[in-house]
Amino acid sequence: MNLRSLLSRSHALLLPGLLACPAAYALPWTVQLNNAAGKPLAGAAVAVELLGRASKAGSAVKSEMAQRERQFQPALLIVQTGTAVSFPNFDVVRHHVYSFSPIKVIDVKLYSGTPSEPIVFDKPGVATLGCNIHDRMSAHIVVVDTPLFAVTDASGSARFDLPAGEHRLKLWHPSLKAQTLQSQVLVVPAHLPVSGAQTSLTLSE
User: Fold this and answer.
1) FRET partner for 38 with CA separation of 20 to 30 A, picked from 56, 125, 134, 201?
2) What values do phi and psi take at 56, rounded to 5?
């Protein structure tokens, strides 16, 4: 797998006399992902780890991976390390959720409703989920050491408000078929136009 990156300032016009914002302020930054063919890559996990600020979620942080119409919803869930994830079953049939992924082994046997105890994802990486009863069911939980994360939209974009400094992008898409995230240095200059800036990346196997 390789990751080709191109860092570019946005070309939005500034109003006359508009000053660049001081480094103390967070400004908009867009991460634009494309596939090897140059097409927007939707449904990719993007996270930004601020330099020296890797962090875990507090004990009260919770998330949810539901089952509806014999599908996991969402198909891709991003959570911060330490998040407790529940697995409610809204179907009339029972499901058996499992994962053999290195970051979290899961075996929630046949059940209806919501299991009494959520599962805490305490290691960064990617967990692939399946159902022992319904083979076509699959999903991924991406775990990152930061609260700054998003899933790219239909245009392949994810937007953040970032402070100046050297940070690290963490990137993953199901097409990569890997259980680790790709990593890319991101440098946010001390002064930016208020329109923000953009990092364009090509994510390919």
Assistant:
1) 125
2) -110, 155
Q: How far apart are the first and last CA of the chain?
A: 4
- For position 121, what pLDDT does the model report? 97
pLDDT tens-place string over residues 53-76:
778 999 899 999 999 999 999 999
For residue 33, the cross-strand partners are: 201
Q: What is the pTM of this model?
A: 0.85
Closest CA to 85 of 118, 60, 122: 118
User: Mind listing the domains of the chain with CATH numbers?
Assistant: 62-144 (2.60.40.420)
Give the 3-state secondary structure of residue 176: helix
Predicted local confidence at residue 51, as pLDDT: 81
Mean pLDDT of the chain: 86
Bond into 74 cis (ω within 30): yes
How far apart are alpha carbons 17 and 20 in whole angstroms?
10
Q: What distance in Å separates the CA atoms of residue 195 and residue 185, rounded to the nearest whole number?
A: 21
